[in-house]
Design a protein that fits this description.
With 425 residues, the protein is α/β, with parallel strands linked by helices. 36% of the residues lie in helices and 15% in strands. Strand 16 and strand 17 form a beta hairpin. It starts with 6 loop residues before the first helix and ends with a helix. 43% of the residues are buried. Pathway: Cofactor biosynthesis; NAD(+) biosynthesis; quinolinate from L-kynurenine: step 2/3; Amino-acid degradation; L-kynurenine degradation; L-alanine and anthranilate from L-kynurenine: step 1/1. Its EC number is 3.7.1.3. It comes from Flavobacterium saccharophilum.
């Protein structure tokens, strides 16, 4: 398709968009009494309008039933998390028994590393990407310290080549082969939070296994955003947050995946808790832990139902839409945004550098733009004029045209506001 930088063309694209009506199912902040253009769903998704009803249902059951809500609520609390199995399994490409919800993202990654980071002898090293999200870096450092190793020795970062913004797949594979029989774990972010680069999860997982290591993924920026086939790709474990592309609310519950090949391994260590115990015998208060079969056996505590309610509202919307439809629009609207950026760049004689890969297979719902010659004042201008975006040092704005609630006309309007912000200086 040949794009055009006109309002009429953008509106025509919206009229052809089968997901366009979902925009009306979300609540948008306003700036200057006008609905914002929202580009930060890669940080915190918008609130779906029907979320409140899910929370109110729990509140009403609590008010009317108190403790009996565990068994007699409209959605009984004691098995509330089981409602996620089917829709989440489709979002991440898993068997229903391989997924569950619990805790928050870094907590879950720590708990999963108890099972899957088991250094022994010379096999103790962890491979991650350079400049992983800081929470992951702190997690790696504390884990290797806990096992008695030094981070500078045990943590191996895959570097970007000089002058390049993204990590090459061949460099990932070469580093895995180089570390070889010293490698205990590969744990990488499925989508890099800064550049928006999507990693080849299938190929990297196979390479890690070939080297004799376990392979896990931090899918914070991937779940609900890219096509995942965690079961078929033979991923050992993964975890993700729910508040970015899945719109469940700030700091909300995390999802996690454990491949079925590990479900019946009695020698696999884990930190146990009551809620991971045999569901049918949980209230017998037995002294010996008998884990639930599947990912649910990694649960520890009674689950926070008030947090799960908005997450359930979201995954049910995803089940209605389907990942294939989301990804089709994601690719198209991201390409249109890229076109708009290049057009405005030409009009203002600027120097915008999109550091996100241009290959659609290596990117998702994010374009990270290096604004050469521009500064924080342009970001401030965008925010004051109703474009909610994200600034990252030294001079990058991250734009996430989330397909559920961003329109093509939003992309056009953003371009016009961006142009005024540059020319008006």
């Amino acid at each position: 398709m040949t794009f055009q930088n006109t309002r009429e063309f953008a509106r025509e694209l919206d009229s052809q968009d089968t997901l366009n009506h979902y925009q009306e199912q979300f609540i948008f902040p306003k700036v200057n009494d006008k609905r914002v253009i929202y580009f930060t769903g890669n940080s915190l998704g918008l609130q779906p309008k029907h979320t409140k009803a899910y929370i109110d249902e729990v509140m009403n059951d609590w008010a009317e039933l108190a403790v009996e809500g565990h068994f007699y609520a409209q959605k009984p609390w004691w098995d509330y998390q089981e409602r996620f199995a089917e829709p989440l399994s489709k979002i991440v490409g898993a068997l229903p028994s391989e997924v569950t919800v619990m805790n928050t993202l870094t907590v879950n990654l720590h708990l999963l590393m108890v099972s899957f980071y088991q250094p022994k002898g010379k096999r103790y090293k962890i491979i991650c990407e350079e400049k992983a999200f800081p929470s992951d870096q702190y997690m790696f450092q504390s884990q290797v310290h806990f096992h008695g190793y030094k981070p500078e020795d045990a943590i191996v970062e895959i570097k970007r080549r000089e002058g390049e913004h993204n990590i090459r797949l061949e460099d990932v594979l070469a580093k895995i082969e180089e570390v070889g029989d010293e490698l205990a774990l590969v744990l990488i972010g499925g989508v890099n939070y800064y550049t928006g680069q999507v990693f080849d999860i299938k190929t990297i997982t196979a390479a890690g296994h070939k080297a004799g290591a376990k392979v896990g993924w931090d899918l914070a920026h991937a779940a609900g955003n890219i096509k995942l086939e965690l079961h078929d790709w033979n991923v050992d474990f993964a975890a993700w947050c729910s508040y970015k592309y899945m719109n469940s609310g700030p700091g909300n519950a995390s999802g996690c995946f454990v491949h079925e090949k590990h479900h019946n391994d009695p020698d696999l260590p884990r930190f146990a808790g009551w809620w991971g115990h045999n569901k049918e015998r949980r209230f017998k208060m037995e002294p010996t832990f008998d884990p639930v079969h599947g990912a649910g056996g990694w649960q520890i505590s009674n689950l926070p139902v008030l947090s799960l309610a908005p997450y359930l509202a979201s995954v049910e919307m995803f089940a209605e839409v389907g990942m294939d439809a989301l990804i089709a629009k994601r690719d198209h609207i991201t390409s249109y945004l890229e076109f708009i950026l290049h057009e405005i760049d030409k009009e203002v004689k600027g120097n915008f550098e999109v550091i996100t890969p241009s290959n659609p297979l290596e990117r998702a719902s994010q374009l990270s733009v290096f604004l050469h010659g521009e500064g924080r004042s342009l970001f401030d201008y965008l925010m004051k004029n109703g474009v909610i975006t994200d600034w990252r040092e030294p001079n990058v704005i991250r734009l996430a045209p989330v397909p559920l609630y961003c329109s093509y006309e939003d992309m056009y309007d953003f371009g016009q506001i961006l142009k005024k912000g540059i020319l008006g200086k």
